[in-house]
Amino acid sequence: MMKWLELQRCARMAMEKCVALKPGERVLVVTDTMRDQSVAQALLGAALAAGSEAVLIVIPTRRTTPQEPPSCVTAAMQETEVIFLYTTYSLSHSSARVKAQKAGARIVSMPGVTEDGFLRTLSIDLDALVSLTNQLSERVMRAKSARITTRLGTDISLELGHPVTVIDGMCHQPGELDFFPPGLFLSVPREGGVSGRAVVDGSITQIGRLSSPVIMSFSQGKLVKIEGGGEAARLERLLASLEDERVYAFASWGIGTNPGAALVGEDPSFEGERIFGWCHVSTGSNATFPGGTVQAKIHLDGIISSPTVYLDGELILEDGQFHT
To answer: Are 56 and 27 in contact (CB under 8 A)?
Structure first.
């Protein structure tokens, strides 16, 4: 009973503060057959209680990302003011999302979020998270270069220059896209402007939480070598099986700002990239983000714990602790 009350409280905050829901607006909650329906029901209930015209749709689980929802859902998304995409794998890279956003929908994508994660990552000081995330994104916007290092051997350099995506959970204007959990900025480097190696020790999308580090070496913006144990071999096989050279393109990077985030869930990387003071690097699709041009068969995030990050040579993060 107590957990259900907490779910309702967080769902109300999502409607009132995060999407600024107004009475009479149309709300669509899209979930799938593998998700915990308690979160979907809490979102639906909060939307109805706020006086909206709310609908919950359950679709068959999509097994990879990017993939499209059924065509009837795509059509419904274009006739809705507020959309929550509560799915196992992300629909944020889908053309359905792009069409709905162009039609003016306010969209919150929350793939892989568990009931526990929903509670943990929204039971925080949201105002402080919004402030820190936006401060960091502004510094990245002004920078021309970034360098990421770790004690495990990460040393990767990135050429910057594209707009930064701020994921702070605030989705108030028509055509906005944000994500739950909140707490992340995301930056697409210049094409061909990434070199070095990333020692990924947290998790990788579709591989899961790592038992040993996976070393990903990049040259001129492309993944050229994968080293490590069994999980590194699995990643190599996964990418090769897609028969798409674009999956090896460096896609994006970012730093997490949510003190409630943890490395958990079916896709630990999605919440993991929000962990306070951790960072991620990704390969594959990035065409739906500012500055991105790659449309690949997959988008994979690799989580790196306790990094040190420099912007134009200035230290902003040291072993996972912010210098602000």
So the answer is: no
**Mean pLDDT of the region 161-165:** 93
The number of residues in the chain equals 324
Q: Where in the chain is the domain with CATH 3.40.1830.10?
A: 2-122
CB 7, CB 38: distance < 8 Å: yes
For residue 118, the surrounding DSSP H or E stretch is helix 115-122
What was the pLDDT predicted at 88?
86
The residue-averaged pLDDT of 130-134 equals 96
Residue type, 321: Q
Beta carbons within 10 angstroms of residue 31's beta carbon: 24
Helices 2-13, 37-49: crossing angle, 10 deg rounding: 60
For 164-209, the pLDDT digits (tens) are: 999 999 999 999 999 999 999 999 999 999 999 999 999 999 999 9
Which strands, in side-by-side order, build the sheet including 184-187?
A: 164-167, 184-187, 250-256, 279-284, 299-304, 203-204, 208-209
Architecture of domain 2-122: 3-Layer(aba) Sandwich (3.40)
Q: What is the pLDDT of residue 267?
A: 76
Category of 169 on φ-ψ map: left (φ > 0), alpha (ψ -120 to 50) or beta? left
Per-residue pLDDT tens digits for 228-252 = 999 999 999 999 999 999 999 999 9
Write the secondary structure of 42-60 as one string of H (helix), E (strand) and C (coil).
Answer: HHHHHHHHCCCEEEEEEEC
Residue 212 CB coordination number (10 Å): 10
pLDDT on residue 62: 80
